[in-house]
Structure formats: C-alpha cells, structure tokens
TrEMBL record, chain A:
Belongs to the GcvT family. Residues 517-600 form the SoxA A3 domain. GO terms for biological process: tetrahydrofolate metabolic process. Keywords: Oxidoreductase. Residues 171-442 form the FAD/NAD(P)-binding domain. One of its GO terms (molecular function) is sarcosine oxidase activity. Residues 906-991 form the Aminomethyltransferase C-terminal domain. The lineage of its organism: Bacteria, Pseudomonadati, Pseudomonadota, Alphaproteobacteria, Hyphomicrobiales. It comes from the Bacteria. This is Sarcosine oxidase subunit alpha. Residues 618-886 form the GCVT N-terminal domain. SUPFAM superfamilies: Aminomethyltransferase beta-barrel domain, FAD/NAD(P)-binding domain, Folate-binding domain. It comes from Pseudaminobacter soli.
From TrEMBL, chain B:
GO terms for molecular function: sarcosine oxidase activity. NCBIfam families: soxD. Signal peptide: none annotated. InterPro entries: SoxD (IPR006279), SoxD_sf (IPR038561). Gene3D superfamilies: Folate-binding superfamily. It comes from Pseudaminobacter soli (ex Li et al. 2025). This is Sarcosine oxidase subunit delta. It comes from the Bacteria. GO terms for biological process: tetrahydrofolate metabolic process.
Length: 999, 100
C-alpha cells in the first residue's frame, strides 16, 4: 500500500492512516490527503471518463481548477454529491467515492466508441448532427442527447444536510492565503484593522505548501508559514477562514464566501451545518488568488498520468507522493524543471526534460545535468501512448526554421507538462474591473479597478515568492491605510529562489496529420485545438461565439485551465491579436457551489412565511382543509366525516343559503385612512365618490392603476367624518398600501392624511345567511341592528360579548351578511362563542371554496381571478362604480383612451354550459366557431367555474370579446377529447333582484 | 447587493430594505383631462431608459417608509447620490463633483 508514498515527506500525517474506497476498492491514505493525492499514492491515475469521447482520464492538477478528476462522493445517509473534484476532496475514514461517465465499468466503457467516432463530434456537433431529418428529433436525437447529457449522477433523495449563512463586516478582506495574501493579512492585522483572511484550501500557505527550496528571512518556507499563521491566530482583530472559497465579488465590496464545515469529517457533529455562506462587506479588499498552470496542447495530452508539472511538485512536496517512477517533463516554462529536480531527488528516474524552447538558462541545465537528467531543448511532444495510463511520449527535435527531425519514443509512467501560468483574475473580473493583455506573458492582468480592491502576487502577474511577499505586504498596508489605519509594509528577505521564465504557445506543432491530433484544450468538455480552428474556419471570430460553438471553457471548471490556451489558438487562427479576439466573461461562482449553500436556512418551513389568522388553530382543530392564498393559509372547506370536497362545499353552500354560515375573513387587507383630507384622498384614489358617503355607511370601491385597469377592490366604511376603514383583497393589501403611500407622499404631499395597515389588528368573522341577525342581535351592545337602524352597507362601532367591534353589514354571498371585526386577540374567542350560539340555527363554518361559489352565483368578481390586469371597470361590468362627475381619479384619463372604448374589448359575462353537469375548466379558451382551421381564433377564456348546488347546475364567468353584446349567443370551449358548448348570459345567476340581502 | 443611503434616515442601509420605484421627476399632471391621448400615453409609458446617469425613485420600505430620489449610473450600477422627494434634480456639474 501507498507504494508511491515517500516516508516522512510532505505535510500529511503519516501516523494517521485513513481508509476510503474508490469504485469499491479499499485504499488507505493519510490525514491531510486529498482523494487525488491518496489515489496517486496508491498508483491510481485512472479516475474517470471524459464527457464526450469517454476517454480515460486521470488527475491533471492539484487544486480547485481540476477539469478531469470528478467523482461521485457518498457520505452515507443520502449524502451523495456528483462531480466532486478529487483534488480538493479531503479523505476521511469511511469515505466512498465512485468514478463517473462510463458503462459498464471505468476500465471498459462502451461509450468510448465516441472516441473512434470523433469526426461526428467536432465543434458544433449538436447543431450539425441533430439537424435532420426532422422526424428523428423526438425518437432518436432527443433521447440520445438526454441519455448522454450531464456529468455524473444526480442525487436521488432530498439533501439531508443543513446549511448556514452569516453576514460579516470588516475593514480588510484578504482572499487567498498564499505568500501574498499572508503578507497582506499580517500587515493589515498589525495595523489594528478588522481583517478577514480566507482560503479555499484546508490549510494556509498556498504555493508555499509545495515549495521546499526557498527561505524567508532565514527560515524555511514552512517555518515562516507556521509563524505567520500563529501570529494571525493571536491577533484578536483577525478572522482566518480556511476551506472558505471566495465565490463572487459583488457591488460595493460585498463578497460571498462558501465555507466547507463538515465535508472533511468522518463523523460530523449532530446537527452541524455542512457549509456556511458568508456575505462579507469589506471596506477594502486584497485579492491574492495566485495563478493556475496551463497545460501544453499536443496529441494525447489527456491520458491518465499526464499532469501539470506544478501539480506533480505539489503531490511530491506537500503530500509526499511520487506521481511516477519514470516521469518525463514536457515544458515551455522553467517552473517544470523544478518538478523534475524534486522528483529526481526523491528517487524517481526522470527520463527526460523536453523543452520546446531552443535555449534555456544555464543554471537550469547545470542542475539537471548534475541529477543525470537527459535534456532535449528545442524538442516538442507529438504524441503519447498507453490506454489507461500513459506509457510513452513521442518527441521530435525541431530545427530553428521549423523542420522536424526524426521522432523518438520515450517510455514513461507520468508525463509532466507546463505551458506557463495564468493569473487568476476571476474575482477582479466579477467587479467589471478592466483586464489588460500582457503580450510578453500571454496573459490578462488586472487593470483599472472599479471597487476598493487591490491585487497582489501571482494573481497580479508578479510571479515568485519574493515578489508575492513584497506586493502582498504593500497591498495589505495600503488597504489598512485606506480603511483608516496606520500601516507600513514590512520587507522580506528571500533566499534560494531562482527566477522562472517561459514562453506561451498555441498547440504544439506536429510532424503528423494535425487534423487527426487529439490535442485537448478543454479537458472537461473534450474540446481540442482543431475544434477551435474549425470554429474559426466556419466563420466564428469572437471568443464569445467560439466559446459557445465549441463549448470551450463552458464546463463546471469555467475554463480555468483552458481559456487562455483556447484564446491563443483562436487568436492564431483568426490572425488577430488575443485582446482583439477577447476574453470570455468570468461569472460567479468561482468554483461550483452547492445549492444548499445559497439556500442556507431558507428551506422547508423557513422557505416562505405562512401567515395564519387568529382563527386558524380552530379551523385546524375542526378538520379544515387548507389552501394557500398569497402568503396566507386559509381554510378551504370543512369536510364532515365521509365527505369529499364536492359534498362538503355543496353542504356548506346550502347551509349558508338556507340558514347561516360563518367564514374567517381575517386575511382581507385593511387600511385605516385618517385625517381631515381622508375623503378627498379616497376621491382621488378610488373610482367612486366618497365625499357624500355618510358616517356609518359603506360603499364598494374600485381601485385602478393610472393605466385605467382594475388593481383592487373592497368595501370602504366611514367610521367618522375623518376616518375610513378600507378593505382590500387578501393578496393586494401590501400593494394597495404602497400605492396609496406613493401618491400621498409624492403627488399630494399637501393632503393631511395618515395611512395605517390594520390587517393584523382586526380578526374578521363573516356571518352570512338569513338567520345572521337573529343569531347575534342579542349579543351586540351599542348598535341598533334593526333594518332601519342598520341597513345593508352600514358600519358601526359597538361591543359583542363585551369585546369592542367594528361591525359591517355587507355581503359577499348575496345573503344577509355581517362582518364582525374584533381585536385580533379576541378573534378565536368570539368565533367560538358565535359557533356555539349558532348551533340553534345549524350554523356551518365554511371555507374559501364555498365563498367562491356563493359569490360567483351572484356575479361578484374576484380581482386577480376574473380580472387579469387588462380589464377596465366597464369591461368587468363595474361601470356603475365610476364617479362620473368627479374631475379626476387615478386611472380616469386612461378610460377615455381610444383602445379603452372599443366595442370588441373583452368583457365579463356569465356562461351556462349546454350540459348542466359540465363544469368548465377555469382558464379554458373560448372560440366562436369550433370548426375553424388551426390555429383557432380565441375570443376569451373562462375565469371562474363551479358546480352550483343552489341552482343544480354548473355556472361560469368568462371574459369574451364584445361579450355583453353577444348575450344569448353560443360559444365553444375546445378541450382535449371534446368541445363543450355554452350560452352567454348575464353575470348574476342567483337572486338578481338582491331580495335576499334583507331577507 | 447595493448599499443605499436613505436621505431621511441619513444612513446607509442594504438594498433589501428598499424598493425600486421607477423613474423620478415624472409629476402626475395636475389635470390629466387637458392632455391629449398622445401626451397621456407619453406620461404613462414613455421613460428615459438612460444608459448612464439615471434619476430614479426608491422607497425605504422596510425602514422609514419614505419615497426619495436617487441618481444611479446604469452602466456601473453605482449610486451617485440620493436626495429627498420634492427637491430638484442635481445639475450635471453637481453630479460631476459627487462622482469624484
């Protein structure tokens, strides 16, 4: 076991073995390992199949940029996650992991046939292959695409984990705890500023963790790191967050950090959140994100065992793992030479360093020579072999004028490549900060900033330890000063660092047929250099188009290793400089982030507020079935044992019409309008006239938008001359109050009016039915309930059961009706008393469904159901509610616009189906001629439709073009299977003379 | 998430406390009946849709409840200033000074 582990080397704890499994095989790693380092220690390079061609793939990198090594992880109890990057997943005892994208097995995958059929899968293959014949789409192409789509498998059960979220404010936020970030955090921390330092890795250090040569101020890099971490930990004004990825940089220095809390633990504490999303508002930000190594692009650069040279160095120095016993290095950058040295010194036989540059620095060669490594400068890689792991690399010399010499094949068990480094400018780019192209380094660097931010270190193009420390210290000190503290940058003395240089190149040239080369640019989306060139040949010139056509950089890694290579190749193909071709936009999140982290606490019962009335508990105890109405939950109907909804609603309706029902109307929006100008304010807001409404009287009011369309309605009662009690629809309460405030504050600030929401202050019990008065006349004090003293549409204040009440006489059922407002805290008590007292009349509680049926029988509209924001009062049959003599009200001017006066506007009508037993579907479309050719001309739709037990037949309301003029006409409602017919009638189906209101 | 200064509370508060209220400085005509259909249409529906400096209304709905006006750059999405309802819009020169 751990044949490739070097005893005593690295930062993992080799005294603490950890057992885990990969594809059912048990392996051992050590505490501190990632899944990638532990697999490599066991000699496992093959970890997955690629997305499109199903090519065997290994581990490319040692960080969050990993495009290849994605695995499914199972933490037990339904905790399954696809596409976890093996390079960041920390192993723990009992971890189960599986590879992805293959069938039947990782080593033998049927899908690999795609690799042989690569001609079919070139750039834009979706657009080309699946175009024709059209008839193939449903049966052949779509199932194929769906079957092949996606990486990994989705979890099958709801996420059992919990997620936390937190706000934080600080003076200086430092992103990245490599040398630059550490130096910045130290400086800012010493100044006394409130500092937060975050890093995506499990421990601080960044590139220092993989660096074993350089010394800082006389100490080894690791000793310096230990001291720095200790100093930061000791500063009370500094917060250090590890395993915390800065995923996005938003306006005004708001950054999102996703902190992984328990994924690395074998047995997380009960109830501990899995991740925490931090929203940090920082006065100043220092971005020290470092740089990501670029692969070289050549045929076969994707075989398992081919990896980035810097990653190989990390595995060796940080994890104590040799990625191979016989590695070959292929590079265009000096940094890969260091990997060769370190591996050679660790006992690997480095077969060769192949450098595409004809000349490299003398000191590099001297050290390689001393280690006995063969050097092939001015050579290039033109191919690799090995089915499930690289077995050899084919290399050729190229003369200065580009002539290829004979190929040589060098056996190897690992191939380490480096095409130079790309500064991570992702977060800077989120701020829309300008990126400047650096031609020499073939990279984009942060330019003009838009936020209070600074970039330092490799992420700013300042490569090397000394540069990172110096720039980081300066950025940290400057940030602290700008945040109002005193600071001065410390200086660091770095020894043992060699300057590293390199060249950047497009895909490596080859002596073979380039059109057959599988030289990968984007490993995760299987995009090759020739795909990009093909896209350019087919006319794509902008990188944004090339990206979408080839899918380069569009995988879950957002092209961290592929964007610049893709750009350089595209730039070469279109023969324009790279900045003219452009860089695609980086968007949050920086790395894939769980939906759980974004949702945080907002799930299950905390997903949305459920508003409940004071009577809700009684309804629940008495068997109500509920329905959501805006944020409220309302009693829908009250079934008795053995009743279904139909039976319950029919019984409730019958009881109300014949004797008495009670309904919880507490959800109705209620606004109190007070002040000397209250009536004038209402005159201007509502269509109706209010000045002459007497104290103690109510009126139905219609509220329009300025566009003339119905926004809301409700009954408004005048309590005193300067006090109105306005009711609104349940869902419209907040909107109506906001609209009133808007007009009051900004259009008529001179009006002396005060608006107060009183929705939750009053519980409302509607008593409806012929016996309503009989029931509570003996219970009410202070109000004359006689027909003369308290006629329909009255309001008065008094007491019921000794509790203060605002009593309305009004009806939404067509029966004699009262609405008893009592202070909310007495709502349930009064309700229960009335229910008890009502037993003598056979009272029934009824829910919203019965309320709907009863009001529809009377043709009373529900705003938002029978209206849809395009209906005027005239359209809805409410022309009578318009105060015609009023000079102005909100929406009045719009009612005379030409389109509002057209005869063919949709108007509210009643419908009676030819078959009285047919209940139409609300929302069903209406046509005049059912035999017309498709697409039919639709002239309206059904807005409300119910079974009316009272009438013994179905009824419906609908809007129909020119509907009122069509009264008596037959219309048709085509539905799947059959077409219904119905006759247009008036909207009032029951008691058109309104006799029952006073019955 | 933006940080917005409420000119009534004289305090900076996160965007979640506020509601957007459309373009500012569009007064409702004193007597809409005197407007032609064309003029009324313009009043109702036609907005500046500025690229750059935009005068707009916000309401500190989960705070003091007041409507106020703001100048925001629609390209950078940055606020230049906020001011009380009823005050005249800042001049270009004043805004230039505030951008510095």
């Amino acid at each position: 076991m751990n044949a490739y582990r070097i005893k005593g080397k690295g930062r993992v704890d080799q005294r603490k073995p950890v057992r885990f499994s990969f594809n059912g095989t048990a392996y051992t790693g050590y505490e501190g390992d990632t899944l990638a380092s532990a697999l490599l220690a066991n000699g496992v390079h093959l970890v997955g199949r690629s997305f499109k061609y199903h090519r065997p793939r290994g581990i490319l990198s040692a960080g969050s940029e990993e495009p290849n090594a994605l695995v499914g992880t199972d933490r037990g109890n339904g905790r399954f996650e696809p596409n976890t990057r093996a390079t960041v997943l920390e192993v723990f005892e009992g971890l189960n992991t599986t590879s992805q994208n293959h069938w039947p097995s990782l080593k033998r995958d049927v899908g690999a046939i795609n690799d042989a059929l690569y001609m079919l899968f070139s750039a834009g293959f979706y657009y080309k292959t699946f175009m024709w014949p059209k008839s193939f789409w449903n049966k052949v192409y779509e199932p194929f695409i769906r079957g092949a789509a996606g990486l990994g498998k989705s979890p099958t059960v709801p996420d059992p984990d919990t997620y936390a979220s937190r706000f934080a404010h600080c003076d200086v936020l430092v992103v990245g705890a490599g040398p630059a970030g550490l130096a910045a955090a130290l400086e800012a921390g010493r100044s006394g500023a409130k500092v937060m330092l975050c890093d995506e890795q499990a421990e601080l250090g960044g590139s220092l963790l993989s660096e074993t040569n350089a010394r800082i101020d006389g100490a080894s890099g690791w000793d310096w790191l230990k001291a720095a971490a200790a100093e930061l930990a000791a500063l009370p004004n500094v917060t250090v967050l590890t395993r915390a990825t800065a995923i996005g940089y938003y306006h005004q220095n708001l950054l999102g950090l996703c902190q992984r809390l328990t994924d690395h633990l074998a047995s997380p504490p009960e109830g501990a959140p899995r991740e925490r999303l931090w929203k940090v508002r920082a006065k100043q930000v220092v971005l020290a994100q470092g740089a990501i190594e670029k692969p070289l692009v050549f045929d076969g650069n994707d075989r398992p065992g081919v990896m980035l040279a810097g990653a190989a160095r990390s595995y060796l120095n940080r994890y104590g793992v040799k990625v191979g016993n016989r590695p070959v290095v292929v590079t265009s950058h000096d940094s890969a030479w260091l990997a060769a040295y370190d591996l050679a010194e660790a006992g690997a036989k480095v077969a060769a360093i192949v450098d595409v540059r004809p000349e490299v620095a003398g000191h590099l060669k001297q050290r390689a020579a001393a280690l006995g490594i063969e050097m092939l400068t001015g050579w290039t890689a033109t191919g690799t072999s090995g089915r499930l792991r690289v077995a050899s690399v084919r290399v050729n010399p190229i003369s200065r004028n580009g002539v290829f010499g004979p190929a040589r094949t060098i056996a190897c068990d690992a191939l380490l490549m480096s095409g130079g480094w790309t500064p991570s400018v992702h977060l800077f780019s989120h701020t829309k900060g300008k990126l400047d192209w650096n031609e020499e380094g073939q990279m984009f660097l942060p330019g003009e900033r838009t936020e209070e931010s600074r970039c330092a270190g490799a992420g700013n193009g300042s490569f090397g330890l000394a540069a990172a420390l110096a720039e980081g210290a300066e950025a940290g000190a400057d940030a602290a000063v700008d945040a109002g503290f005193k600071a001065k940058a410390a200086t660091y003395k770095v020894d043992g660092e060699v300057p590293l240089m390199g060249v950047s190149s497009r895909e490596l040239t080859t002596d073979r047929n380039a059109s057959k080369a599988k030289a990968f640019v984007d490993f995760q989306n299987d995009v090759t250099a020739k795909d990009i060139r093909l896209a350019v040949r087919e006319g794509f010139k902008s990188i944004e188009h090339i990206k979408r056509y080839t899918t380069n950089g569009m995988a879950t890694d957002q092209g961290k290793t592929s964007n610049i290579n893709g750009l350089v190749i595209a730039s070469d193909a279109v023969r324009r400089p790279a900045p003219a071709v452009g860089l695609t936009t980086f968007r949050p999140p920086y790395t894939p982030t769980t939906f759980g982290a974004f949702a945080g606490y907002n799930r299950s019962e905390l997903f949305e507020v459920t508003r409940k009335t004071p009577i809700d508990v009684w309804a629940e105890e008495n068997g109500a079935v509920f329905e959501p109405v805006s944020l409220w939950r309302r009693a829908w109907y009250f079934p008795k044992p053995g009743e279904d909804m139909h039976a319950a609603v029919t019984r409730e309706c019958k009881t109300v019409r014949e004797t008495l029902g009670m309904f919880d109307a507490s959800t109705l929006g209620k606004i109190e309008i007070v002040g000397p100008d209250a009536a004038e304010f209402l005159n201007r807001m509502y269509t109706n006239a209010w000045s002459k409404l007497g104290v103690g009287r109510c009126r139905y009011g219609v509220l329009l938008g300025e566009d003339g369309f119905i926004r809301d309605d409700g009954v408004i009662g005048r309590i005193t001359s300067d006090r109105f009690h306005v009711t609104t629809t349940t869902g419209g309460a907040a909107r109506v109050l906001a609209m009133m405030e808007d007009y009051l504050q900004t259009e008529w600030p001179d009006l002396k009016v005060w608006l107060t929401s009183i929705t939750e202050q009053w519980a409302v019990i509607a008593l409806q039915g012929p016996n309503a008065r009989k029931l509570f006349e003996p219970l009410v004090e202070g109000i004359d309930l006689s027909e003369e003293g308290f006629p329909h549409m009255s309001v008065a204040e008094g007491r019921i059961y000794g509790v203060p009440t605002r009593l309305f006489r009004m009806s939404f059922t067509g029966e004699r009706g009262y609405e008893i407002n009592v202070p909310a805290r007495y709502g349930r008590a009064v309700w229960e008393k009335l229910f008890e007292a009502g037993q003598q009349f056979g009272i029934t509680p009824y829910g919203t469904e019965t309320m709907h049926v009863l009001r529809a029988e009377k043709g009373y509209i529900i705003v938002g159901q029978d209206t849809d924001g395009t209906l005027t009062p005239e359209d809805a049959g409410l022309g009578w509610a318009i105060g015609k003599s009023k000079p102005d009200f909100v929406g009045k001017r719009s009612l005379s616009r030409p389109d509002m006066l057209k005869a063919d506007r949709k108007q509210l009508v009643g419908l009676l189906t030819s078959d009285p037993n047919t209940v139409l579907e609300a929302g069903a479309q209406i046509v005049l001629d059912p035999n017309q050719t498709l697409p039919m001309k639709m002239v309206g739709h059904v807005t409300s439709s119910y079974w009316s037990g009272t009438l013994g037949r179905s009824i419906a309301l609908a809007v129909v073009e020119g509907g009122r003029a069509r009264e008596g006409a037959t219309i048709h409602v085509p539905m799947p299977g059959r077409t219904h017919t119905a006759r247009i009638v008036g909207t009032v189906f029951y008691d058109p003379e309104n006799k029952r209101l006073s019955a | 998430m933006l940080v917005i200064r409420c000119p009534y509370c004289e305090a900076e508060r996160p965007e979640v406390e506020f509601a957007y209220g459309g373009e500012a400085h569009i007064a409702r005509p004193a007597d809409p009946s005197t407007l032609t259909d064309e003029q009324w249409k313009d009043h109702l529906f036609i907005r500046t849709n500025a690229r750059g400096t935009h005068f707009e209304r916000w309401r500190h709905v989960h705070g003091c409840g007041r409507f106020f006006n703001a100048v925001r750059d629609t390209v950078s999405d940055k606020f230049v200033t906020t001011y009380k309802a009823g005050l005249p819009r800042p001049t270009e020169a004043e805004l230039e000074g505030m951008r510095k």
